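Please go through the protein record below and explain what the tokens say about the fold. Record follows.
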Amino acid sequence: MTDVLIQILSGVSRGMVLFIVASGLTLIFGVLRVANFAHGSFYMVAAFVTYTVTRMAGGGMPGFLASLVIAPLCVAALGAAIEMLLLRRIQHRDHFYQLILTFAITLIVADGVKMIWGRDYRSVPRPQLLEGSISIFGSPFPSYYVLLIVIGLVIALALRLMLERTRFGKTLRAAVADGEMVGALGVNVPLLYTGVFTLGAWLAGLGGALAAPVGSIAIGIDNSIIIESFAVVIIGGVGSVSGALVGALVIGVLQAIGIMVAPRLAIAFIFIALCAVLLLRPQGLLGRRA
């Protein structure tokens, strides 16, 4: 039972990283109505920037903390540029154009990453302070995974407070309901959209920076994370940050249990849950019917 508990907690830590990334995707989709396939590219770029920053800083806690600041900011700047220079020009066209554009961006970013960092696998060492573990009923659990869970909960609380208690959050919710009316009331809607896209890119960058010390960094990690992120958005409910948290935890725990029960079929557990939600509750666990 202790081994099962440790495995579930590992799934929760993975789910928290997935939530951070997917929360940015659900904000973008909920407000801008853009299915941003380039969201996984933001995650990948942040992971490679984290590798560079930690290497330049000589590793350790200072390099790790610097990467958590620099990598998300770099990705946020990239996201703002993409929204202002590309997406804004086609925002009134059919969604098909947005899909093609964001997919093209993923190809361009992938080639750019190959040119800068190459095709080799990279790894980011964990800070010495976070290399240890804590004891849970006599079994070790990595300290870094505890940090991921804590940061995920803090981000979830911060997003909830932002959406419910700040003027920016209230404007966002109004824009989701009726963007034209918000514009008629004097709100700079293009600037609002840029802010939402930048925030979503920053969250993807933070997720990439946090995930970098957990596994290898290589070309292609953008594909896996974007599939899982869309699954989170669909399971939790489009536009719902709370739903993204629930969906991410569901996927993280199901993956962890799947690795214990049937390692070769672990990925299938995600799609089984996805199909079940689409059949039984198409709007998502915490979503609302259109």
Notes: The CA atoms of residues 171 and 182 lie 8 Å apart. The chain has one domain: 2-280. The beta strands are 133-136, 139-142.
